[in-house]
Amino acid sequence: MDSLTRFNVISSRIRLARNIDGIAFPSNPKGIDHDKRLRLPDGIERLLRGTFDYDYFRLVDLSDIQIKALVERHIISPSLVHNRQEGAGIVERNERLAILINEEDHIREQCVEKGFNLGGAYERLSSIDDIIVNRLPIAYDSKLGFLTSCPTNLGTGMRASTMLFLPALRLANAIEDTVRVFRERYGLTIRGIYGEGSTAMGDVYQLSNTRSLGLTEWEIIEIIERATLAMCKAEEVAREKLMAERGDEIKDKIQRSFNTLLTAYSLTSEALMSLISDVKLGVIFGLVPLTDTAPLDKLTVLFSASSLTLKIGECAPSVRDITRAKLVREILSEVI
Known about the structure:
Blueprint: H1 2-5, E1 9-18, H2 34-48, E2 54-58, H3 64-72, H4 78-81, E3 88-92, E4 97-101, E5 107-114, H5 118-135, E6 140-141, E7 145-146, E8 158-165, H6 167-171, H7 175-186, E9 188-191, E10 204-209, H8 217-263, H9 269-285, H10 294-302, H11 305-312, H12 317-335
Antiparallel strand pairs: 1-5, 1-8, 2-3, 3-4, 4-5, 6-7, 8-10, 9-10
Helix pairs in contact: 3-11, 8-9, 9-10
């Protein structure tokens, strides 16, 4: 199992949706219960004080570039940005655990673990959820379970997801058919890396459950685990077929991309994502002097447009692209 998922499962995430009884959902018109929602962040922060090492922020206090960087690093969702005046976050300093306030729901709890570890993410998040559910008047119905803004989250209020790297299926022109089959077979959704409506940049896809009602948390996790393993198996088969039929072409593409990362003078964020996808495939095939894809995954986060701007300050796009390439060269020289 480890060999099947090692390179293809980037991370595992558990997300829980919770709402306060008697307060209108954040998705309602702004005038409804606005003052009550504005008071929620400080109250929840006081409730969680001392439970883990975190940073607390309100979106209204952040700059546009800071908010974009948080979205790029998957710490906050694009949906939270739409509610900037009321939105807030309590984010663990290592960014594994986050409590988002006034997104679509009053409270969105999430935990992200590296690799294939949905169970570990759920167990970590459960201790925080117990505090919230036991100390706050959470909206709950004996038949429907946790009441949520989106009907698909009714029940446990849980979304379990894995972030998957699937380059061979795309190169084999099989990704669309595979995604369709998995949707029909498992009743799941497969999206781009930023969730609903986003594209699969860098051959990275997010697989998650579509319903929460009528299932326990562990049943949802089991479904996602089975689907993840099946998707990794499909990717493995596609890799073997790809190498058998187009081996020389793929090897050349990987080597060119690797050399570009090592020598490029300028790199856009889009080019970096594409090159890293090729090189990660090279790691899997053993064609480049790297044994792990983790450093490459880190590059995509560190050097996205907004995160890099925060690091070096506002500058022309051309300067940012030159700096990005320089930093990529420096980091790769330390790991190869």
